[in-house]
Design goal:
Blueprint lengths: L1 H61 L6 E3 L3 E4 L10 E3 L7 E4 L10 E10 L5 E11 L5 E3 L5 E3 L10 E3 L4 E4 L10 E11 L2 E12 L5 E4 L6 E3 L6 H4 E4 L6 E4 L11 E10 L5 E11 L9 E2 L8 E5 L5 E6 L4 E6 L5 E5 L9 E7 L8 E5 L6 E3 L6 E10 L6 E10 L12 H10 L3 E4 L1
Parallel strand pairs: 2-6, 8-12, 14-18
Antiparallel strand pairs: 1-3, 4-5, 5-6, 7-9, 10-11, 11-12, 13-15, 16-17, 17-18, 18-29, 19-20, 20-23, 21-22, 21-24, 24-25, 25-26, 27-28
Length: about 450
Amino acid sequence: MKNIKKKLIVILAFGLILSISTPVFATETGEQNESTTEIAPPTQTTTKNNSVEEQKTKKELLKANANAVVGKTNLSFKIGDTPAAQDFVTVNDASNNPTFTFKNGQPVTNASGNYSIEIQVTFDDNTSTDITVNYIVKEAAPLATLKTTTPVIELGSKPTPNQFATPAAGAKLSFKSGAPSTKKTGTFTTTIVASKDGKTSELIVTYKVLDQEPPKISVNPDDYPFIIKGETITPSTFVTATDNSGKVTLTFKPGYEPTYSRLGMHAFVVIATDPSGNTTEFYSYYVIVSDKPTLKAPTLDLNRSTPSILYGVTMPNLGVIAEDEDGNLIGWSIEDEKGNFTITFETPLQPGDIFALYSSTEVEYSEETYYIYDPETLKIRELNESPFEVKTINTKNSNTTNSNTKNSNVTQKIIPKTGDANPNPFTLFGFILISSSVIILRKK
């Protein structure tokens, strides 16, 4: 009974405790639920705030550094240039994709001087900055410059623009009105046009047309080295001259004037001068020879001489020359100390051939003696009567109506060549002289 009562008391006590504690638990639970309901909105706000902070942090990380873009220093342009905004700055960091604009309009470049410009730099983080840049505008380099000295153009030549001016790199020069005339000497003007990249400039230039080409000297084809004693000698005796001007004067150089009487070899210098003062000099030799025979003529040994070889004698140490009827050299010899000479013909004499012999030095000569290879006797004999002698030649006449052939003698007059009144007896020594003469042309 006591145990049952005790259990009931415990149950009642537990129930009482439970009944008392339940409202409290309910109350605390309700309060807890209310707290949870009220806190929920702040929890959402915190999440949003955290997202904004993260975005701000990212933006701060992407913001350009202070030296990402800086203005250029020592910047200069030429008059007429049209620079872009980016030409004024240096980009050190392009990770924020900067863009550039002129804050107050285009820069001044139409006049030389010192200027400044504001460049607005905008980054992709929506931030921007202004940079002030100083710059200089300089005079534009000329497309061409005139020559430092007055151009001199050759008479009759075809000039080019580059003879008058020097173009800048990449520029081209041309004549405004075609190539100027150079037909006359004098001082003239012309206009040169320089062009590059669509830009042009004109330069007026003064120039001179001068004859700078010296005359040309040609040696006369005659055997001018030999001059007969007493003959008049002029520069034209030796040479002729031409010039692009059409006019030229020939004179002897002072100190080299010719002599007219002294026998022997002499030097001469001829100067050709044109109207502009250009000169050409010609230097050579000539020989004054005797105007009449002064040496003893050679004597031919008719007994020893043959159509191939002539033997004879004359004054010692002379030259003996053999010429044919036309005055052509056919043989020559230098005598020994006793005056003996031997002339060997390259082509033997033919019956009826006439030849002349004479002795000679460089300046003196003998009379000519004439000989014939007689067609009748087939021996060489002297023509003593005169240079003209009647010669009989055996010929054969054919009779067309008769089959018989008859031999008959036909008389023909042979006229050996005598030359001028004063023949030139220096064929041999002329060859020697011409081959050893000195010919010099000098142009100034």
